[in-house]
Amino acid sequence: MESATGPLNAILCTPDGPARGGLVLSDGSGPADRFAWQGLPEWLARHGIATLRHDKPGCGGSPGDWRRQTLADRAAEGLAALTALRKQAGVERAGLIGYSQGGWASLLAAVTGPEQVDFLITIGGPFVGAEEQERALLARVMRRRGLSGESVEAGLAWADERAARLRAGEDPAEVHADQHELAGKDWAAVVCDRPYDTAEELGFFARMLAFDPAAVLPFVQCPLMAFFGADDEHVPVERSLVVLGERLPGRHRGTNGVAVLPGVGHMLYPVPPRDDRPRFEQLSPGFLPTLQAFLDRAAP
Known about the structure:
Number of helices: 11
Distance between the termini: 27 Å
């Protein structure tokens, strides 16, 4: 499929018979190629849904560098992938399914190209901005590691300063140099570790800071299904639910859905997945039936 960085390698998976709908699969943050998603495309094909998944720029032999992208770039890729999916699979109704940060990208695509996105699915996608989401994650991890309340507050103070400086346009290299001086702090192993440990990664984080899901939710024109793991440490689930309840339009009230799956975290696995079984079969037992029920409503 074509993109702003050049042609991205992609895989189209179609049902044996006519497809009743289509989905573009959007990965989370970090590198990812077209071989991800662990059998879910085949499961969707058995249920009449064609899928297209593609490399991120710079992954899987495709050109570009995902670390230089903005969220708008990712949203544009999703819309380009929808065009390719419709052309190749011959489907009329098609939407996006985004995991983690891919949920943000898919949400932005649905708002910037409403005529192209017929339905939207997010999996572990926060409905708060990057700064709030990362702050909640860092606080949880520091407390779990037994850091004192004073250390937690000091670590969060640096996280707040770092985000403010990056949002104001300061050179990530300068922010990283100051951060390097904090290496001896007991909280630095959490707050300054990946994905904040290089200037390049800080630059990528800076480009995510401008996006506010709450600001764009009122403009969503298609049905939305949001999945969360109840034990997700990466996402402030309760806060995301509040934002959804307050900001998502009610025009698709009978089709929209939210599922908080018990006993699972960000990846929706009840226990660490085993390599001797397809990974999608090891997800929360409530995920696939709920996904199918939504698709039956959104793409009958």
